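Technical annex B. To support the medicinal chemistry partners, we prepared a structural model of the target in complex with uridine-5'-diphosphate, based solely on the information shown next.
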Amino acid sequence: MEKRKQIYEGKAKKVYETDNKDFLIQEFKDDATAFDATKRGTIIGKGVVNNKVSAELFELLESKGVETHFVKLLSDRDMLIKRLDIFLIEVTIRNIVAGGMAKLLGLEEGIVLKEPVLEYHYKKDKLHDPLINEYHIKALGLATDDELRIARERSFEINNILKDFFKKRSIDLVDFKLEFGRHKDKVLLGDEISPDTCRLWEHGTKKKLDKDRFRRDLGGIEEAYQEILKRVVG
Ligand code: UDP
């Protein structure tokens, strides 16, 4: 399938229509932004890593019965996906305290949580994607009861699958962000699962192998992304 009209350009991806209205192509860029795009940069090779890592993880999830928008890899930077009506919600799952949770609650990064924490954030850049709860989501009609239940249950399932997968590769899955959407009356996992959207710490050393190296100017960014590609795709 080929790219037709570009219908969206985000911070890290472009999305194109195809000949078939039910399918889109997402192209992963090397552009990186953080702190609501006030920090911008390029991470060479990031698009290729995120495309291949996402594809591998979507295939893993599909093999375990979790439905995703992924259809197939088309090239180093392009994947074919099912068209979703994306909910205006981000689902975050946390296993270890870091980032926004450390800040919000005044906690040390690195505290291992007794059980996973699920958060919803309202996709509203101008307001820095504020934390919301299920009542906000239902009251604003961002998703129905059923859709929300499916997204919530899948998110915990995905956490179990990914935690286990990364553990085998000596990586601790600290936290990650998911996006879900509707496709023909089904709720599917969309977007990407990559070092841009997960915090991944090398087990033992706690070395950050994710976008925090860019956010926090830690250096060795390209190498960290390549290391994740190597461990995930092998
Ligand atoms: N995250 C994301 N997109 C966002 C915000 C967060 O992919 O717009 C990911 C982030 O990489 C991390 C997890 O979601 O793995 C939790 O992020 P957090 O809420 O701690 O926010 P941050 O500290 O990144 O601002």
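Notes passed to the chemistry partners:
The chain has two domains: 6-82, 85-221.
Residues 85-221 form a domain with the D-amino Acid Aminotransferase; Chain A, domain 1 fold (CATH 3.30.470.20).
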